[in-house]
Amino acid sequence: MNKKILLWSITAALAGFLFGFDVVVISGADQKLQALWGSSDSFHGSVVMGMALWGTVLGAIFGGIPTNKFGRKNTLLAIGVLFAVSAIGSALANDPYIFAFARFIGGIGVGASTIAAPAYISEIAPAKDRGRLVAMYQFNIVFGIMIAYLSNYLLSDIGENAWRWMLGVEAIPAVLYMLFALKLPKSPRWLLSQGKETEAREILKFIDENADVEKEIKDFNSHNEKSDKTETIFLKKYRFPLILVFLIAFFNQFSGINAVLYYAPRIFEAAGLEESSALLNSIGLGVTNLVFTLLGVFLIDKLGRKTLMYVGSAAYIISLSLLSAAFFLEWTGMAVPFFLFLFIGAHAIGQGTVIWVFISEIFPNHLRASGQSFGSSTHWVLAALIPSLFPFMLKAIGGGMVFLVFAGMMVLQLLFVAFMMPETKGKTLEELEDIILKK
């Protein structure tokens, strides 16, 4: 693999580390903040905990605009600024509304990163390595999640304001990420779409001096010339990729993954574990996520996207059914943690590894950021709704019924993989454009 492309892909994928850290770091402060501000379950879930996710929705809906207009690299730099401001603001907040606003800013960064980072990596990566390079964004997400759980555990006993340190420490990796991102070249496909062929040619030569740069430019331009720049992803001819993106994002969240990540300590305590044990088991979830994501990254260009989704779907159904049974039958001890580890492994090797790769592949070059925005928006609207309602649903209908619903949704996902999802491994973005638009 080209070392330059690997380094740039890792750098862009570090936006995923900030994404993962930001989304999960709040779990360590969850119940402390509710007690501190005396919030009701509904206010705490929808405002204190949920506001970051609504910021993510906004970032996902509108993140395609700066990604297209100002470029992938500049958008990635702006994302680093948003994460740093959010970390400092939430750490210094003295009431739930200022706290929620600071978290909302970080959420915008999360949503925009799900567009800019995968789009950037997919556009600089060769077809044979694109899956694992884009999947490094997901690896960094779960690495950020694991570090957030570990950081929360290490900081949990430092005093009354431990939650401030948990949230504020994110500013350090945010600033480091911005410094690394300054060294990234611009996406050559984006430059070509802006008519900057000379600059794109220089970067393509820099990426691989042995590549047939003129052929790459010719292939891009031949597809670009056929495209109408006034088109939107909602035209009839783009209905199939639009449905694919919607469904993979829909099923991703109806697995219950974000609810589990956000409320892992609460779920463990509901299953009878003490607070310290709950936080420690949360670290176990982070490690499991990391290990199985690494396995997914290794396999995605070997076995393909569809095979990983088959494996993940089957493991989802088994683990969620067992979790439901554990709550219905009141199993105690390590049953719930074990089944949650199995669930996290199922997510990591399937949906977790595949989603951002798949969404970044199936739209034409001129609509990639818009398609990515639609997929991310669907993902994050549901990622805001489901965790916001989770504390209420856990209390109202119980963990058994909640996890049973999630298991039923994963049966539907298995049918989606079997009958609708195309395989995209090993093909150039231009080849995929021709294949998918013919369906």
Automatic annotation (TrEMBL):
<comment type="similarity">
    <text>Belongs to the major facilitator superfamily. Sugar transporter (TC 2.A.1.1) family.</text>
</comment>
<keyword id="KW-1003">Cell membrane</keyword>
<dbReference type="InterPro" id="IPR005828">
    <property type="entry name" value="MFS_sugar_transport-like"/>
</dbReference>
<dbReference type="InterPro" id="IPR020846">
    <property type="entry name" value="MFS_dom"/>
</dbReference>
<dbReference type="Pfam" id="PF00083">
    <property type="entry name" value="Sugar_tr"/>
</dbReference>
<feature type="transmembrane region" description="Helical">
    <location>
        <begin position="43"/>
        <end position="63"/>
    </location>
</feature>
<feature type="transmembrane region" description="Helical">
    <location>
        <begin position="307"/>
        <end position="329"/>
    </location>
</feature>
<dbReference type="InterPro" id="IPR050814">
    <property type="entry name" value="Myo-inositol_Transporter"/>
</dbReference>
<feature type="transmembrane region" description="Helical">
    <location>
        <begin position="279"/>
        <end position="300"/>
    </location>
</feature>
<protein>
    <submittedName>
        <fullName>Sugar porter family MFS transporter</fullName>
    </submittedName>
</protein>
<keyword id="KW-0472">Membrane</keyword>
<feature type="transmembrane region" description="Helical">
    <location>
        <begin position="403"/>
        <end position="421"/>
    </location>
</feature>
<dbReference type="GO" id="GO:0022857">
    <property type="term" value="F:transmembrane transporter activity"/>
</dbReference>
<feature type="domain" description="Major facilitator superfamily (MFS) profile">
    <location>
        <begin position="8"/>
        <end position="425"/>
    </location>
</feature>
<feature type="transmembrane region" description="Helical">
    <location>
        <begin position="242"/>
        <end position="264"/>
    </location>
</feature>
<dbReference type="InterPro" id="IPR003663">
    <property type="entry name" value="Sugar/inositol_transpt"/>
</dbReference>
<feature type="transmembrane region" description="Helical">
    <location>
        <begin position="335"/>
        <end position="359"/>
    </location>
</feature>
<feature type="transmembrane region" description="Helical">
    <location>
        <begin position="380"/>
        <end position="397"/>
    </location>
</feature>
<keyword id="KW-0812">Transmembrane</keyword>
<keyword id="KW-0813">Transport</keyword>
<feature type="transmembrane region" description="Helical">
    <location>
        <begin position="133"/>
        <end position="150"/>
    </location>
</feature>
<feature type="transmembrane region" description="Helical">
    <location>
        <begin position="98"/>
        <end position="121"/>
    </location>
</feature>
<keyword id="KW-1133">Transmembrane helix</keyword>
<dbReference type="GO" id="GO:0005886">
    <property type="term" value="C:plasma membrane"/>
</dbReference>
<dbReference type="InterPro" id="IPR036259">
    <property type="entry name" value="MFS_trans_sf"/>
</dbReference>
<keyword id="KW-0762">Sugar transport</keyword>
<dbReference type="InterPro" id="IPR005829">
    <property type="entry name" value="Sugar_transporter_CS"/>
</dbReference>
<feature type="transmembrane region" description="Helical">
    <location>
        <begin position="75"/>
        <end position="92"/>
    </location>
</feature>
<feature type="transmembrane region" description="Helical">
    <location>
        <begin position="162"/>
        <end position="182"/>
    </location>
</feature>
